[in-house]
Amino acid sequence: MPTVRTNGVETYYESRGEGPPVVVLHGAFSDHRVWAERTRPLTDEYRVVVYDLRGHGRTGGSDRGAYSIDTYADDLRELVVALSLGAPVVCGLSMGGMVAQRYAAEGGSLSGLVTVAALSSRALSPGEWVERQVALPGALALARFVGFDAVQPFVSWITSRGDDFDPGDLDEKTRIEDAHASDYPGVSPVEAAKIRHALLSWGTLDTDYASIDVPALAMCGGNETARMTAHARFLASEIPNADYRELPDAGHNAHVDNPDFLRDALEAFLQETS
Predict the structure, then answer these.
(1) Number of neighbouring beta carbons within 10 Å of residue 272
(2) What pLDDT digit, counting tens, does each position of 77-133 carry?
(3) Domain range holding 127?
(4) Cα–Cα distance between 205 and 164 in angstroms, integer?
(5) In the chain, how many domains are there?
(6) Looking at residue 160, which CATH number applies to its domain?
(7) Does the pLDDT value for residue 170 go beyond 80?
(8) How many Cα neighbours within 13 Å face the side chain of 227?
C-alpha cells in the first residue's frame, strides 16, 4: 500500500501514468476512488496522482486536535515535494478545491489550478457574511461543548437555506466506490469533527486570489446551487488568468454525473498548460 509521509501523517496515494503531473483532491467525507476511475483515461499522457486526504480513507486520522484548510494545504505541499512532482496541475472538488485555492495562493508549486464545485473564502452577500462571521463560528464554539452532531442540523440549514442542493447521482458514486473496495475505511466520528472544523473555519481566511499567477479553471455543475455557481464565477473573475465552465446535467459530484464533459474540459486545460 503506497504511502508517503506528509506533515506528520502517512498519506495513502496512487500514481498512474507518465508525463506532466496532475494531482487530484477529493471532497470532504469522500476519498480518492471516484477520481481514480474518472481520471484513468488521462494516464495515457499524464502522471495522475490521487490521494486520501488526512482523516479520510486509508490515510486515516492523526493526533491533531483540529484541522484547518491550511492543514490540508500543508499536507499537499509536502506530498508534492515527497513525490518529486515539481509544479503539477492541481485539481480539487468541493473541499479539495478549497485546499487547492489555499495551496496556490500561499506559494505552493503548481502550473495550473482547477476547482470543481468549490466555495471561495469570501462572503459574496451580506447574509453570507453574517453566516460566516457570526452563525458558523457560534456553531463551532457550541460544538466544543455539545458535539458536532448536535449542531449539524443548524449548520446544514444555515448553509443551504433558499437553495435546492443536488448532490448528484449518489448511487453511481457508491457503485464506483464499491468496485474499488467495498470495505474501504470510512471517516470516524472523531475525524469527522476535525473535518467539519476545517470547513466551518474556511470563511475566516483571507485568500489573496490576485496572487495566483498560474492558469486556472473554475467549474461548477449546471444543477448546482445558486450560491455555489456564484462562487465558481467569483473565482474565475478574481484569479487573473482564469476561466469559468459550467458542467451540464451535473450536481455537486460533477465527476460522477458528467464525467466525459469534465474530463474533456480538464484535458483541454492540461494541453494548454503543459
Answers:
(1) 11
(2) 999 999 999 999 999 999 999 999 999 999 999 999 999 999 999 877 766 666 666
(3) 3-273
(4) 26
(5) 1
(6) 3.40.50.1820
(7) yes
(8) 24
